[in-house]
Amino acid sequence: MIRMNSHYKKLKASYLFSDIAKRVTAFQENNPGTPVIRLGIGDVTRALPQACVQALHKAVDEMSMDQSFKGYGPEQGYAFLREAIAANDFQSRGCAIDPDEIFVSDGAKCDTGNFQELFATDIRVAIPDPVYPVYLDTNIMAGRTGEFLEGRYQGIVYLDSTKENGFVPSIPAQSVDLIYLCYPNNPTGATATRSQLQEWVDYARREKALILFDAAYEAFITDPDIPHSIYEIPGAREVAVEFRSFSKTAGFTGTRCAFTVVPKDCRVFDENGDSYFLHGLWNRRHSTKFNGVSYPIQKAAEAVYSPEGKIQVKELIKGYLENAAIIRKAMAELGFDCVGGDNSPYIWVDGRSDSWEFFDRLLKAGVVCTPGAGFGRCGEGYIRISAFNSKEQVEAAMGRIAKALS
Ligand code: MLT
């Protein structure tokens, strides 16, 4: 008899964004005359930068000739891309990251979800609340939690991110082994300061813990004082893994390319306290289960770092940040407290009512957002509005919301 992994029974029936998509489809079927404006899932809408498109075309042409055709590439990514990432994203900011500490992949969702495989089942895991659901769900699947009681999984140390702490959780009183952090934050759009991140790094060093730092929204940082990488924090090379993505930076959600940085200084320990290099473990996992991102896509990602690519990416981000400013202003004018939107494409709105109810009210008006409660208990009462759409659609959505709520 084939037996299931019973931990899957503890999961909510479906993934948050699938749940929302079902509600939106049902609404559209019942209201064919009201086309919805989607400011829900953080999916980009603007075309790939021209520099990436040109690089992609050129690489496809190379694949069409025997002399330049490529079969399997290195699982960790081609050197041309890893070198461009190391130089532009890290070394230029004074972070000593080498190309061979970078693992190219097809998404930060997969990497943040898969990374927990390297750790024992009985480690203590700290997860922010609200949170991008992948961190929690993959730990539930792996059996690191108990049952779901009063809105929380037993066995997880929740890091409450609330208005009171500026949506940056404080260090937990108890000791934990694995810590998930995401800045600029999904879903709140909040950022963490250098000294706040330093506290986490110092804590992880004291506890021999590890930080999984999701920096997928790094490109949206406009404030010069906000760190772009955890490796800008002294000591982080020993205790932090960083996840990055081209999805939101350069419109690659459908194209798929991301990377994870595993510094060679990070160690994990076995039951005897003997230490192992995390880099070697992730390399073993990655090369066993993954065969690399396709050559044309890696060439397109490399073009993000070309002089034209850099200008085009900046333009793309600027457009989304302008949308974010429109959303934040409109919601504030309606009397709602908001965070995010200044260094992030997400605006976290205190709806002062049940999240799903607020979601339904906006859906009735023809606007899709994301209910905060879907990200955790501390998200109750909030909604997340995404800036990923055209300016026209964002303005139209804000008009609909104003009409529906006033
Ligand atoms: C989100 O809306 O939170 C993101 O699009 C999810 C993701 O990047 O997987």
Automatic annotation (TrEMBL):
* Cofactor requirement: pyridoxal 5'-phosphate
Tell me which UniProt keywords the record has, alphabetically. Answer: Aminotransferase, Pyridoxal phosphate, Transferase
NCBIfam families per record: DAPAT_plant
Species of the source: Desulfobotulus pelophilus
Task: Note the superkingdom of the native organism.
Answer: Bacteria
InterPro entries given for it?
Aminotransferase_I/II_large, DapL/ALD1, PyrdxlP-dep_Trfase, PyrdxlP-dep_Trfase_major, PyrdxlP-dep_Trfase_small
Q: Which CDD domains match?
A: AAT_like
Q: Which reaction does it catalyse?
A: (2S,6S)-2,6-diaminopimelate + 2-oxoglutarate = (S)-2,3,4,5-tetrahydrodipicolinate + L-glutamate + H2O + H(+)
Q: Where is the Aminotransferase class I/classII large domain?
A: 35-401
The keyword Aminoacyl-tRNA synthetase is annotated on this UniProt entry? no
Enzyme Commission code(s) on record: 2.6.1.83
> Under what name is this protein listed?
LL-diaminopimelate aminotransferase
The pathway that the record names for this protein is: Amino-acid biosynthesis; L-lysine biosynthesis via DAP pathway; LL-2,6-diaminopimelate from (S)-tetrahydrodipicolinate (aminotransferase route): step 1/1
Name of the top EC class for this enzyme: transferase
GO MF: L,L-diaminopimelate aminotransferase activity
